[in-house]
């Protein structure tokens, strides 16, 4: 199974908004609404920040939002803050009854 | 608050078997949910290894399936990973997690992770 495609890195200034894309296929992202986003700070376990494309778990800031169009999912972070600097991973369920991760995107807050 | 803790050897020799256990606290595995293993090689991204349901049914990453066994022990409230014939490429931080959103990849609780090094 192929990994989902994410940009290796993105950057933005505090207060800005930015979007991280996650490109899949009609067998994963395009087929199901089971797309998840995880935030991982260095040395820490990942944390679920978006589930089922656009839902936020309890306690996750509403500055994080998710969407999907066709085979591509997106994570948007608004009002960028220094604490948002981390690695972000998308994740999807697939038609093979498996799960596939994106390669990860390093977000730098300038 | 569900808590998960990985345990097992931090060093495994090439060609041998990696064995890890994830002990779950403050939640009964028998209550439901799926449980998963994910790994992360140093400096690299996340890789899903496999999931297990409390009934014992499993599904795994096809690239690892021939070497992976995931099992569950509801009486002791833990689940385990066995990875056979390891090589240096299996060196990684191994995480256990609860897939509490239907088994589709929504890992809502994670262990802290344990580093396993494959080396002679």
Characterization of the model:
The complex is a heterodimer of chains A (110) and B (120). Chain A is an all-beta fold. Chain A has no helices and nine strands. In chain A, the strands form two sheets. In chain A, strands 1, 3, 4, 7, 8 and 9 form a six-stranded mixed sheet that branches. A three-stranded antiparallel sheet of chain A has the order 2-6-5, with no helix packed on it. In chain A, β3 (35-40) and β4 (47-50) form a beta hairpin. Chain B contains no helices and eleven strands. The chains are: A mainly beta (110), B mainly beta (120). The A-B interface holds A 1, 3, 32, 34, 36, 38, 40, 45-48, 51-52, 57, 87, 89, 91-93, 96-104 and B 36, 38, 45-48, 51, 59-63, 95, 97, 101-102, 104-108, 110-113.
List keywords for this structure.
heterodimer; A: 110 residues; mainly beta; six-stranded mixed sheet; three-stranded antiparallel sheet; 9 strands; B: 120 residues; four-stranded antiparallel sheet; globular
Question: Whole-number radius of gyration of chain B?
Answer: 13 Å
Structural category of chain B is: mainly beta
Radius of gyration of chain A: 13 Å
Biggest sheet details of chain A:
6 strands, mixed
- How far apart are the termini of chain A? 35 Å
**Major sheet of chain B: size, sense and barrel closure?**
7 strands, mixed
* Number of helical elements of chain A: 0
Topology, number of strands of chain B: 11
Q: Which class best fits the helix and strand makeup of chain A?
A: mainly beta
Q: Number of helix segments of chain B?
A: 0
- End-to-end separation of chain B in angstroms reads 39 Å
The helix fraction of chain A, in percent, is under 10%
User: Can you count the beta strands of chain A?
Assistant: 9
Unreliable stretches of chain B, pLDDT < 50, 5 or more residues? none
Strand percent estimate of chain A: 35-45%
Helix and strand succession of chain B? EEEEEEEEEEE
Task: Provide the residue-averaged pLDDT of chain B.
Answer: 95
Low-confidence stretches of chain A: none
Report the β-strand fraction of chain B as a percent range.
Answer: over 45%
Mean pLDDT of chain A: 95
């Amino acid at each position: 199974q192929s990994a989902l495609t994410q940009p290796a890195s993105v950057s933005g200034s505090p207060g800005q908004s930015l979007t991280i894309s996650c490109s899949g296929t009609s067998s994963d992202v395009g087929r199901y609404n089971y797309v998840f986003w995880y935030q991982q700070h260095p040395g820490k376990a990942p944390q679920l920040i978006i589930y089922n494309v656009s839902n936020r778990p309890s306690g996750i800031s509403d500055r994080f939002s998710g969407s999907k169009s066709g085979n591509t999912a997106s994570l948007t972070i608004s009002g960028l803050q220094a604490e948002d600097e981390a690695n972000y991973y998308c994740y999807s369920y697939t038609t093979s009854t498996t799960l596939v991760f994106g390669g990860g995107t390093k977000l730098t807050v300038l | 608050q569900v808590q998960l803790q990985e345990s097992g050897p931090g060093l495994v020799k090439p060609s041998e078997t990696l064995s890890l256990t994830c002990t779950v606290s403050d939640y009964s595995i028998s209550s439901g949910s799926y449980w998963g293993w994910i790994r992360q090689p140093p400096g690299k991204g996340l890789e899903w290894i496999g999931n297990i349901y409390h009934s014992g049914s499993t599904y795994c990453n096809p690239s690892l399936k021939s070497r992976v066994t995931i099992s569950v022990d509801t009486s002791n409230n833990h689940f385990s990973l066995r990875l056979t014939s390891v090589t240096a490429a299996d060196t990684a931080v191994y995480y256990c997690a609860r897939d509490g959103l239907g088994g589709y990849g929504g890992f809502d609780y994670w262990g802290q992770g344990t580093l396993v090094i494959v080396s002679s």
